[in-house]
Each structure stands twice: as structure tokens, then as C-alpha cells.
């Protein structure tokens, strides 16, 4: 279950949705979905697996920032939003209204805390000239809007699983293994959606900058901060460039097929029909599935030995 859900969230994160009237976009975080279906600890490890695959093989997020990304996108949802908000408001037998309401609130608060974490970490790094108050006043509202959408998506996914296999949510809440609970239908559905999303629906992702890029652009005029090439930053950046064989979820420039290069102007349009994006999405989903599955099996084996 960790592997399939990891692949599903990896694929879902490839689709940015437009935030109307802002020129920005957002994407699903997914840690809250993972927490409800796996429990907070397995969810956090699955989220870490997703972000590790993204950073190593697709250069999505710096390696030096990986720990902060895991903390901001995983910790708040898994250990604050899920146990302190969702579980207390939803109860053991939630109605559809309570499920949507509790998950929406948990998603919004988790994302607000994550956005605040980014601002504070940027300030503490000492290498950024972003003015704290301006950056904060841009990050929080845009992630509030993103959180509303994430809450609705999260509730829809959880409601689907609740209707198909409610025992999954109950065992996750009790931190118990699935055992003989029939989950093949749910797993097959989620895996199919993951592959379809990664292979084709990812073409329809919004081209607008995400909430962080948008906030940086509004503050500095650039969507990304200037990279530091000195010392360990430069060394790690070089390692990442060598390891990431599909940077930015596409073929490397030297590896792009001639047809893709000839139609580069066309592929920048929306939808961005691109074989490189499809290949990256499917490979990333498979890598995430294998890594999260391996982590889960390792923990299961360790737990069995200790008992």
C-alpha cells in the first residue's frame, strides 16, 4: 500500500492547478492523504520517498534543501494536521460532510504551517535577501488558496477509499497492519490513476509558477533565487546534475529527440504534449513505488524480528 500510494502521490504532484486571478498555481502535497490511509509514520516515510526520488532523478528541489522539504511537506500534515485536526473533528464514523470539512481544515492548516516553515527557514539560512515581511505576506495567502483545493482533492480521494474499503482507514487510525483486508481493487484503481496521470494527464498541468515561485517572483522579480556555486553548494549541485537523468521531468537537452527539438515552440503551448514528461512521470512513479515498498517491507521485517 505504501508503494502504490507513493506512486499515486508522485503522479498527482505533476499536475499543477491554476489559482484563478493570481497568475500562480499549486499542486497536491499528498501527505494528508497518506496519513489517513497509512497512518502518520508510514505516511511520513512515503512522503520522504517521493521527495527523494524527485530530488535525485528529476532535480526537483535541491539536495541540500531536501530535509527542509520533507519537514515542510511531511511533518505538519502527518503529525499535526492528521492527528490534531482531522481525527478529532472527523471521528470514527464520519459523514461525508464531516469528512470533507475536517480534511479541508487539516489541509489548509498544514499548508499554512508548511509555508511559514519555508519563510522561516529562508530567513534562518542567511543566504537570501528576501525581505521577511513581504515574503511572508505573499506566501501565506497564496498557500491558503492552494490549501482549499488540496483539502477538496484529499477529501475526494479519501471518500473513494472509504466507500470501497473502509477497513483501510480504520487500520491506519489504529496503526495496525492490513492483514487479510481485501485491498486489491483499491490498489489497482490508484495505480491505474497514477500511470494515466503520469503518462498523459500531466500534459495538462498549469504553466503558471507554483506558490513558492510566484511569491519569490513577486518579491524579487525572479522565480528562483540565484544559485550559490561556492563550497558545498556547488559540489552538491554538480552531483545532482549528474544523477538527475530526467531534469525538470523531461529529457536532457542533448538527449531530446530531433522531432521534439523541432517542435519546441509547440510543446510550450497548453496542453504541453511531451513524450519526455510522460516518460519521466511513469519512471518516477515506478521508482517511488519501489522505494516506498522497500521501506515498508524493511520496517515490516524489522518489526517482526523485534516481536
What order do the helices and strands come in, and which of them pair?
Layout: H1 2-12, E1 17-19, E2 24-26, H2 31-38, H3 40-58, H4 66-90, H5 96-125, H6 132-164, H7 166-173, H8 184-199, H9 211-220, H10 231-243, H11 258-262, H12 264-267, H13 275-306
Antiparallel strand pairs: 1-2
Helix pairs in contact: 1-3, 1-8, 1-13, 2-3, 2-4, 2-6, 2-7, 3-4, 3-13, 4-5, 5-6, 6-7, 6-9, 8-13
Any key phrases for this structure?
globular; 307 residues; 70% helix; Arp2/3 complex 21 kDa subunit ARPC3
Describe the structure.
With 307 residues, this protein is mostly helical. The chain has one domain (2-306): Arp2/3 complex 21 kDa subunit ARPC3 (Orthogonal Bundle), CATH 1.10.1760. Helices cover 70% and strands 2% of the residues. It contains 13 helices and two strands, in the order H-E-E-H-H-H-H-H-H-H-H-H-H-H-H. Strands 1-2 form a two-stranded antiparallel sheet. Helix 2 (31-38) crosses helix 4 (66-90) and helix 3 (40-58) crosses helix 13. The longest helix has 33 residues, at 132-164. Residues 259-267 have low confidence and may be disordered.
Rough shape? globular
Class from secondary-structure proportions: mainly alpha
User: What is the N-to-C order of secondary-structure elements (H for helix, E for strand)?
Assistant: HEEHHHHHHHHHHHH
Q: Biggest sheet, in brief?
A: 2 strands, antiparallel
* CATH class descriptor name: Mainly Alpha
Estimate the helix proportion, in percent: 55-70%
